[in-house]
Amino acid sequence: MTTMIRGGTVVNADRAFRADVLCSNDKVVAIGENLDAPAGATIIDAGGQYVMPGGIDTHTHMQLPFMGTVTMDDFYTGTAAGLAGGTTTIMDFVIPDPKQSLLEAFHTWRGWAKKSAADYTFHVAVTWWDPSVHEEMGVLVREHGVNSFKHFMAYKNAIMADDETLVNSFRRALELGAIPTVHAENGELVYQLQQELLKKGITGAEAHPLSRPPEVEAEAANRAIAIANVLGTPVYIVHVSCAESLDAIARARAKGQRVYGEALAGHLVIDDSVYRHPDPEFARGHVMSPPFRSRHHQDALWQGLRGGNLHTTATDHCTFCAEQKAAGKDDFTRIPNGCGGVEERMAVIWDAGVNTGLLTPSEFVRVTSTNAAQIFNVYPRKGVVAVGADADLVVWDPNGSRTISASTQFSKGGFNVFEGRTVRGIPTHTVAAGKLVFERGELRAEAGAGRYIERPAFTPTTA
Ligand SMILES: [Zn+2]
Q1: pLDDT tens-digit readout, 207-243
Q2: DSSP secondary-structure letter at 164?
Q3: Superfamily of domain 55-375 in the CATH hierarchy
Q4: What are the sequence ranges of the domains in the chain?
Q5: Whole-model pTM above 0.70?
Q6: How far is the CA of 436 from the centre of ligand 1 (A)?
Q7: Half-sphere CA count of 97, side-chain side, radius 13 A
Q8: Does the bond joining 213 to the residue before it have cis omega, within 30 degrees of 0?
Q9: DSSP per residue over 36-90, as a string?
Q10: 383, 369 Cβ separation under 8 angstroms
Q11: CA of 97 to the centre of ligand 1 (A)
């Protein structure tokens, strides 16, 4: 299988240049001007367009059992939707129940993910602690290509990691050459604020952001960063949503601490007025944690991305339909938390970031693909258009536009937080592992074509 992408401008994180790109089987095999196309090659005309490394969404939840239900998108529909948006790799989460074996959960998720249409890899959550967890973290790193562990500082009485778990797990991750990641929200504060709001009779989705103010996120971000500092581990903070958390990251980085931050496409462009919308179903559709924030936080997140204190962009793709969300119609704490976005992330960030001059095209590639590949140690297999890299490519038309709607999306759930937004800058072609899987609106995703991507441990520092 040979594919030639002709006449485009290759955009990598470090530079952009005119070149043809030749793919053979699943790899890029040649890059240069006026390459000869072998007989039988599929030719993609990229004239006037950019050719970029396929997106890496560092944070998705496909087929996740959560809050008494299971997300609408499974690993096939979710990864297929990603391909339609130019995302060729997802990083999903294995979330063991407290007291469940990490390895058992890992194998369960691996089974669910077999039908993926795009490449995938897993962060594994540490939701409890005992010597068997210590042992199994080692097995996951050494034998299964896992190099990142996730910690939920929220969701008390469910999957919340207490300080004992955080400290033990961060320490073990360091020993193994893996990176700890955290969902930073103080679960005790969230729990108590929720109870207070319910007692006052504030039971709708408008209570959701009130129960999770920025300070609650900042406390946890600061605590995780402090623990990482004491132990000497790097730390990656998922879905940074507010200026206060970003400040914590910026302060730590300025002191030389290795702290990374992830921003979600939704948090970059949607504000908290959605929770006060007169239609309760619309408001519930936006319930996710951390919640959407007031405007000034969005400006801060863009500055963080441009200034280098936030590194990756993701979606926390976790779709529930209106009936599932209605489980919380009389009690906001029972609304399944989650929104979509895997299909829209690249276009939303291009439109709001590159078209406005906040990001250059190379900076766009850096925050949608390259940094993720480097931080999670799959670079240069992923995250760059280069000879020898995986042939995961997106051909991007900076002048093409479309209006996002749940009625035309590939993703399941029947709801879209970007509904009605017209974006300029869209993928025309997506190539995944050398195959043309999306062409001008037509999706040819194939269940099972995605591969599990192993991520080796980091080389220990000698310090
Ligand atoms: Zn998540």
Answers
A1: 999 999 999 999 999 999 999 999 999 999 999 999 9
A2: H
A3: Metal-dependent hydrolases (3.20.20.140)
A4: 55-375
A5: yes
A6: 29
A7: 7
A8: no
A9: PPPTT-EEEE-TTSEEEEPEEEEEE-SS-EETTEE-S--HHHHHHHHHHTTEEEE
A10: yes
A11: 15
